[in-house]
Design goal:
Elements lengths: L1 H39 L3 E2 L2 E2 L4 H11 L1 H18 L3 H4 L3 H26 L4 H27 L1 H11 L4 H33 L4 H31 L12 H43 L1
Antiparallel strand pairs: 1-2
Helix pairs in contact: 1-2, 1-3, 1-9, 1-10, 2-3, 2-5, 2-6, 2-8, 3-5, 5-6, 6-8, 7-8, 9-10
Length: 290
């Protein structure tokens, strides 16, 4: 009876630790999604920016589950709306913009998680690759559907003004084409590599070290980019075609969040190294006493 209670208590503690690990990683990935989306908003191809946040969305969907992927996609959509990246469509149809942006982000994360879950039964690394493919396909596909449902007269007028033969060719080639290809390549290259590194970090302390390094690098890089953009904003050198509203405020917020991400990464890294060293020293002391 006591043995059963002990086994049950141990199982409960393991589940609790696993849940805490998931929530911690989800919080980190949420912060990374915010930073990368704000950073990507400064990289424009045509009238839209590159969505760099699809990589952590795929990683979250693969490592944490379907609903975490959907959450990260939803956060990505909210940042897009707040940052003003959807402003060209917001001036045409507010409701259509909200529905399209939120659906494409949330469903991209959800479908990436489902794709990973389905393929994982054969090979987990192939599953990450498939999820990395599915995420930008769904994201762009929902965007094009939203264009057809809510914005087609406006897109037709834009296509005629720019000399395209049809609204469909403009939507695919002019609005989504290069952005989709860029996001797809970034996802395929980065998502499987990072997921594999994190997935192989079974040791808790080693996991903290790996998470810390990734967060510190991403946070530091985003902070550097934010500071450069902030200086450009102060000097009035942000190109008008970027369509950035209140650039000083946007890049100041991005710099603050990037700094917090970098600090959290450094703290995790130091904690992991300290704990690993302490355990090593303790093991050496025990070995000497023997």
């Amino acid at each position: 009876m006591n043995q059963t209670k002990t086994v049950s208590a141990n199982s409960g503690r393991k589940l609790e630790k696993e849940q805490i690990r998931k929530l911690t990683l989800a919080a980190m990935l949420t912060a990374i999604v915010v930073v990368l989306q704000l950073l990507g908003s400064a990289i424009h191809i045509g009238i839209f920016s590159i969505n760099l946040a699809l990589v952590p969305i795929v990683i979250g969907a693969a490592m944490l589950g379907v609903w975490y992927g959907a959450w990260l996609g939803f956060v990505n959509a909210v940042v897009i709306l707040i940052s003003g990246d959807a402003a060209p469509f917001m001036t045409v149809n507010v409701f259509g913009t909200l529905v399209t942006v939120i659906l494409k982000g949330t469903l991209a994360g959800l479908c990436a998680g489902l794709a990973y879950r389905f393929v994982k039964r054969w090979n987990k690394y192939a599953a990450v690759l498939v999820a990395a493919l599915v995420c930008p396909v769904v994201n762009t596909g929902i965007f094009l559907i939203g264009c057809r449902v809510f914005f087609w007269p406006t897109i037709t007028a834009w296509a005629e003004g720019l000399g395209y033969k049809s609204a469909g060719s403009y939507a695919i080639l002019g609005l989504a084409g290069l952005n989709f290809v860029t996001e797809l390549v970034i996802n395929i290259v980065l998502a499987p590599a990072i997921a594999r590194i994190l997935g192989e970090s079974q040791d808790k302390d080693m996991g903290e070290i790996v998470y810390g390094i990734i967060l510190a690098i991403l946070g530091g890089g985003a902070l550097l980019g934010a500071m450069i953009l902030l200086r450009m904003a102060f000097l009035g050198r942000i190109p008008a075609e970027w369509g950035v509203q209140r650039p000083v405020l946007r890049y100041a917020i991005m710099a603050l969040i990037s700094n917090l991400v970098e600090i959290s990464g450094i703290v995790l890294l130091v904690m992991g190294i300290t704990r690993k060293q302490t355990k090593t020293d303790l093991a050496n002391q025990i070995q000497k006493k023997k």
